[in-house]
Amino acid sequence: MGLVDIGKHDRTISFVVDTDSQYLFFVFAIPSLPANPTPKDLPAMLPKPRCFRHAAFTLVELLVVIAIIGVLVALLLPAVQFARESARRASCQNNLKQWGLALNNFEGTIRSFPSSWKPTTPIGTRVDGWSAQAQLLPYLEQGSAYNFINFDNSYTQQMLVPNTLPPAKISAMKVPVLICPSEKRTGIRFDAANIAEHAPLNYAANLGVWFVFDPATRQGGAGAFTPMQPTSGGEVTDGYSNTIAFSEVKTYTPYYRNAALANPTAPVPASVCSLGGQFKSDSGHTEWVDGRAHQTGFTSLFGPNTEVVCNVSGLPYDVDWTNQQEGAGTAVTSATVTSRSYHPNGVQCVMVDGSVHFISDTIHISIWQALSTRHGNEPAAVPK
Predict the structure, then answer these.
(1) Quick one: 252 and 357 in the same domain?
(2) Do 22 and 100 belong together in one domain?
(3) How many other C-beta atoms can be found within 10 angstroms of the C-beta atom of residue 174?
(4) 5 pLDDT exceeds 80?
């Protein structure tokens, strides 16, 4: 047998080949150690460290990963937003359902619906009026708030609500069931002295198509609710399921008021701005206690979410328009107070029977107006 040493792998292993049998032998050689090793001998006794190259991302690979993550986020974000809006819409639907139940319980007890504007003791030549929403409070488990209201006096002359910091009037108390979760502006409105004055709302009473109130005759419009004179269930001859009770509106809506025109004719969206009046940039639907049309009502002259854009001081505003505030003059109250919401493509309504429906922006205007009258005898039903 002939052995041939073919080299060393490291200090402890040798490779030997048997030339006759062609076997490879591993010979483990233990390096010699000093007879009496000292700490200085330890480095020589230890195996030499090896260097390894660690794998890493290149700049191109890193950019590709970032791009993939960005695409995944872009795909996921709409789904998350859709899920959140679905939850908000369901909560809004529940709020409206409660208003429908409250209305039916009120009618079952009082034998009529609340008036949209319940007049109070005059303050000089001005008469304020409480909203239908305020009159329905005890039927919404809001009896504690209702007990602080003296309906004989204006909401501007109410006592401060106890145990509130800072002290506030009932008009500045938020009613949670009046706010849609999709609403973007839910804050309290403050007066010039920075004192809490009013709280906003998203659910407005149906006042009809265009005509709302004539103070000379006390005649009201064709909606489910009218000023001063409450309507009864028997007057809803179109059917409870075919008549809107409340629909959505946006808070802090710009509007014109008190143009005081004599018997104005119904405009189209493009001609509203020319009707004039006192312009208010952001106070519509901010007073849940006030029964006037521009605060707690809506009309159906224009379809849901119709834009009525007026430019004031170089800025565009999506406006409402009221010819005369109820209780503030002798002119008739005609109004275009459009139902609006932050839900995509429509608004939610509760019918007089308590059922809640989503109404598309594309609903035919004749159907929308038919649903807002209580006794028009139109053959209209909520679109499925």
Answers:
(1) yes
(2) no
(3) 15
(4) no
* 36 assigned to some structural domain: no
- Model pTM above 0.70: yes
Query: Same structural domain for residues 209 and 353?
Result: yes
Residue at 379 is within a domain: no
Domain check: are 100 and 26 in the same one? no
Q: Which residue, chain included where needed, has tokens 């075919």?
A: 242
Clarify whether residues 11 and 101 are in a common domain: no
Give one DSSP letter per residue of 276-340, joined into a string. Answer: --EEEEEEET--TTB-SHHHHEE--SS-TT---EEEETTEEEE-EEESS-TTS-SS-EEEE----
What pLDDT is stored for residue 15 in this prediction?
Answer: 45
Number of domains in the chain: 2
User: Torsions phi, psi of 279, nearest 5?
Assistant: -90, 130
Q: Residue range 141-164: average pLDDT? A: 87
List CB contacts of 344: < 8 A, sequence separation 6 or more: 85
Angle 244-178-373 from CA coordinates, rounded to 5°? 15
User: 15-29, 188-202, 259-273: which has the highest mean pLDDT?
Assistant: 259-273
Enumerate residues 6+ apart whose C-beta is below 8 A from 281: 254, 312, 317
Q: Which domain does 14 fall in, by range? A: 1-30
Please check whether residue 79 lies inside any domain of the structure.
no
Q: Are both 158 and 250 inside the same structural domain?
A: yes
The residue whose two tokens read 């009770």 is 245
Amino acid code (one letter) for 355? S
Q: Is 244 helix (H, G, I), strand (E, B) or coil?
A: strand
243 falls within a domain: yes
SS3 content of the chain, % helix, strand, coil (to 5): 25, 25, 50
- In this structure, the dihedral spanned by the alpha carbons of residues 377, 382, 383 and 384, taken in order and rounded to 10 degrees, is -140
